[in-house]
Structure formats: C-alpha cells, structure tokens
Amino acid sequence: MVGVAEHTFIVLDKQMLIGKFVHGEPHVEAMAGDVNIYMNDLDDSQMAEIEIMIAEPKSRGKGLGKEAVLMMIAFAVKNLNIQSFRAKIGESNTASLNLFKKLGFEVALYSEIFKEVTLELPVRSNRCMELLNLIDNPDDTRSL
C-alpha cells in the first residue's frame, strides 16, 4: 500500500539475557516481544497507530511494555514528526487497556462489531509532554 510506513522495536528482557549484552547482537534468548507503529492514516500523516506485545509470559508485569511504548512514542515524535497516537485494543485485554490509559491515552471510539476500544493520545496533551520530559530526564519518576 502506498504511503504506509511502519517501525518495529524488539523488546528484550535483560533477566533472560545469557552472557553479556553486546549492542548489535540479536540476543534471541532475551526477546520478549515487540512494539510497533504504523503510519497508515492516509488522511493524517502525523497520526501513528501504536501496538505492544509482550509474548513471553514470564516477561509480563515487569514494566517492559510501558517502557517500550514510551520509547516508541519518543522515537516517533522526535524522528517522524508524529503528533498523535492511536491504539486499538480488544475489550477483553484489560492489561493493555490499563497500560495505555495510565500513559494518558483516552477512549476515542468503541467498535461493538470488533469488540475493540480505540484510544488516542495527542502529543500536545499535558500527559504526553510529561512522558516525553520523563524520557529526557529519567531520574524524574514523579510522572509515572
């Protein structure tokens, strides 16, 4: 499809790492999931759909998803000029819904047919600005 771009970051769980971390090495044993953004809104090139998956059950509940989403948001804002994020989450996926709501995403739409909640976060929102500041100043954990 013309005009659609995507970016993926692989999420590593350092507790599953064998040996010493070497930047650029695949570290397959530590792969826990991924975070993706898709610029697939042909009417708004500054909107990105974001999704997170922590596939490895023993890596869930450690904050990896939150950290990965924050890193992807920062990457997209700073490098791709993204101004708004959208997440589509199944209504039964309460962990993901809670994660995105905690990060400041707000419900924009509910699809009865797909049993899916669409949440959005504009970059100019106070919460998003707090999150971006936190990424730039990691010692300030008050925002989380």
SSE pattern, N- to C-terminal: EEEHEHEEH
- Gross morphology is globular
CATH topology: Aminopeptidase
Indicate the percent of residues in helices. Answer: 25-40%
Radius of gyration: 16 Å
Which percent range describes the beta-strand content? 25-35%
Strands ordered across the widest β-sheet: 1-2-3-4-6-5
Mean pLDDT score: 88
Q: Give the assembly state of these chains.
A: single chain
Q: Structural class per helix/strand content?
A: alpha+beta
- Total beta strands: 6
CATH architecture: 3-Layer(aba) Sandwich
The fourth-level CATH homologous superfamily is Gcn5-related N-acetyltransferase (GNAT)
- Distance from N terminus to C terminus (CA atoms, Å) equals 37 Å
> Major sheet, described briefly?
6 strands, mixed
Protein name: GNAT domain
Organism: Macleaya cordata
Domain N-acetyltransferase: 1-124
InterPro entries: Acyl_CoA_acyltransferase, GNAT_dom, NAT9-like
